[in-house]
Every structure is written in structure tokens, then in C-alpha cells.
Amino acid sequence: MNQALPIGLLVFLLNFFWSDHLFSKSIDLNNSKSLLHSVRLLNADGYPVEQSLTKGKIVGLYFSAGWCGSCRSFTPDLIDFRNKHQREFEVILVGADGNSAAQKNYMKKYNMPWLAVKNQSEDSRFLLSATDAALLPSLIILNYDGQIISREGVTDIKNMSVGALEFWKKN
Predict the structure, then answer these.
(1) Of the candidates 90, 83, 74, which has an alpha carbon nearest to the alpha carbon of residue 156?
(2) pLDDT digits (tens, 9 = 90+) for 43-87
(3) Could you tell me how far CA 149 lies from the centroid of its own chain?
(4) Model pTM?
(5) Long-range CB contacts (within 8 A, 24+) of 142-145
(6) What's the sign of the alpha-carbon dihedral 134, 139, 141, 146?
(7) Euclidean distance between the first and final Cα of the chain, in Å?
């Protein structure tokens, strides 16, 4: 059995169950602030970018990892969806790989054209906790104000294809 799968799963689970104790960011989900208001974003090469790249767009927080078979299967569909709708939709990878190098390799292998949060960072733990993303892959959809409008982004894309974006716009 591949050692990366159990180790990666363990890292993801530890981050999920213990995230409240591992970082200082907190969020009041009744508050109107965007989930992304203080999250530091990176481009596919790992360099910091401005949050303005998501302004005016529906955003999908993509909880995924290179060791996850279901993630590797869904990623090409998400790339295709994002590329068809890139003026109105952006993806931010919240990786569950064991380290930043593994996340960067995963992004390069699949030519992911989107933004990311630094792997195993305070920001990634914050987003994991704030969204309650419990499964991989998960695609949490945020409206233009950064509020959650769907926790079923993977299912929405699989079932509605290009109609998913219009569905999210109505929510």
C-alpha cells in the first residue's frame, strides 16, 4: 500500500479535528465579512497575489490533495469548468498534501490555472475550520461577498455541468 495515502489522510484529519487549537484566526459566521478577507493567496508558482483577482467572481474553495484518487479524478473536470467560466468563477486550492512541495507538484502535474492558499498554513487551517469541509474532494462555493452558498460544489458540477454557475448565481 502506498505510504502517502495513510500519512496524507492522517495530516488532513489532524488538521480538521484540531484546527481550532492550531491557529489564532477566528470567524463569526454570523458576521458579514468574507471568508477570504484576511487570507493570503498564492499563484500557481507559489508567489503572493492580490485578493482583487477574485473580486466580482463566484469562488470555489477546492479542498484537495495529490494523494487523493477522487481528487485526481475530479480535478480535470474542475479545470475545464473553471476555464470555461474564468471571467465569473475562480478556484482557490486549499491543499491537504503533506507539505508545500507536494502541493506545488500536484498543481503543476495537473496544470491547475488557479490560486492557492499556502499548504499547512494558518490560512488553510482557518478555511478548513470555517467551512467544515470534511471530505476530499470538497468544493465550497462562495458568493461575490465571500459567503458560503453551496457546500456541494463537486456534486453541483457533476450533476449540472455548465448550469452550476447559473445555479450558484441565484443563491
Answers:
(1) 74
(2) 988 899 998 889 999 999 999 999 999 999 999 999 999 999 999
(3) 14
(4) 0.82
(5) 142/34, 142/35, 142/36, 142/58, 142/59, 142/60, 142/61, 143/58, 143/168, 143/171, 144/56, 144/57, 144/58, 145/32, 145/34
(6) positive
(7) 43
pLDDT in tens, 21-48: 333 344 444 444 688 888 999 998 889 9
What is the C-alpha separation between 151 and 60, in angstroms, rounded?
Answer: 10
Return d(Cα 61, Cα 88) in angstroms, integer. Answer: 14
Q: Give residue 122's Cα distance to chain centre.
A: 14
Q: Which three cell numbers stand for residue 5?
A: 495515502
Supply the angle between the helices 153-160 and 69-84 in degrees, to the nearest 10: 60
Measured in whole angstroms, the distance separating CA 5 from the mean position of its chain's CA atoms is 19
